[in-house]
Amino acid sequence: MGIERFLPEGFVLTTTLEKLVGWARGNSVWPCTFGLACCAIEMMATSLAHYDIARFGSEVFRPSPRQSDLMIVAGTLTKKMSPMVKTIYEQIADPKWVIAMGACASCGGIFQTYAVVQGVDQIIPVDVYLPGCPPRPEGLLAALMKIQQRAKGERFRDRPDIVTEEDIRKYCLQRNIPEKIEPPITA
Length: 187
Prior knowledge:
By secondary structure, this protein is of the alpha/beta class. It has helices at about 15-25, 40-45, 80-90, 105, 135-150, 165-175, and strands spanning about 30, 70-75, 95-100, 130. The protein has one domain (about 15-155): 3-Layer(aba) Sandwich (Rossmann fold), CATH 3.40.50.12280.
């Protein structure tokens, strides 16, 4: 029914594990629902049939940060709300990405006051900035495609959640733990 009917018998596809994992991650970016203001309406509109975010594998807006890997900060971030944003960001498993959607999330927008954070990048790292007041759903789809490109091109050695031999050595040196523990000799 699909592509398999066009492939010859015994077709073998070769690739690296890194490229396969990147392809899977890039085509299944699940956003965390986090709408703060008017930009959230445009974010919700992106999942309508007219824009169809499902063709990018991102139609599943997750209510839990533990089930998502993309945080879309859509709208005005106040200083009172910023600790919650940081907590939700920290609960997302690595690798994770952030889109600052709208002028308010990117730089505070028209709200140059003491109560508004002048850019979400003061609280958490941002991967893609999406300008506009409010930005159109097409802009969010373009930002999502940039996140997909980043996910597909990610190398294993660049990921922060991968432990290397050097990391183990540093950990052992800091705590005076022998790197290799020999099993006890029994007579």
